[in-house]
Design goal:
By secondary structure, this protein is mainly alpha-helical. Helices cover 69% and strands 0% of the residues.
Length: 214
Amino acid sequence: MISPLDSLIDDPEQDRVIAALLPHVPVLGWTEAALRRALSDLSLPPDDAPLFWHGGAAGLIEAWSGWLDRTMMAEVEQASGVTKLSARVRLAIVARLSLMGPHREAARRAAAALALPGRARVAARCLARTVDAIWYAAGDRSADTSWYTKRIILTGIWSGTLLVWLRERYDHDEAALAFLDRRLAGVAQFGRLKARITEGLAGGPSAPHSHSEA
C-alpha cells in the first residue's frame, strides 16, 4: 500500500525559503512578489525566484504543508506519556495547529488559493498526506481494510477542525479544540456502539441470553 507520506521530501533550502516567505504572505499573498521578498531577506538573488516558483503558488503551499506534516510528526514522536490512540491523534492535530498558529492569515490565504479551479488535485494531495501523517504520528500502522475507514473518519475531523480554526478571528484555538474534542468523543461513542452491536449479532456478551433451553 502506497502512502502519501512516501512523497514527503526533506528539502532544507526550500524550507528556509518558505519560512522567510510566510511573513510576507498576509500582504502579498502566495505570489512571486512575496517569494522575491523572501529571497532578498535571505540575501539570495531575487532573480532566483523561478527556481522555487516552478509549481507556482500551489507548489509553495504544498511545500509548506509538507514541512508542517514532517515537523508535526517529529514533535509527536518526542512526546512521552501519551499512549492512547485517540489522545495521540488529538496531540498530533493540536501540534499541527500550533505550528500554523503564527501564520494564521497565510493559512487562510493558502486554503483560499487551493480552493481555486485547477488546484483540486494539489488540495486533495495535501489533505491525504496530512491525514496520513496524523495517523502515522499517532502510532497507527494498520494495513487492512480499516486503513481506509480510519482515514475517511479522520479526514472529516481534520477538515472540520481546520475550518473552525481558520474562522477564528483572534489567535485563540478554543473553538477549534472544542470542536475537535466533540468529534473525537463522537467517534469513540460510535466505536463502542459498533462493538456492542457486533457482539450482539455474534451472540457475545452484549447479546440477550435466553435460559429457556438448557
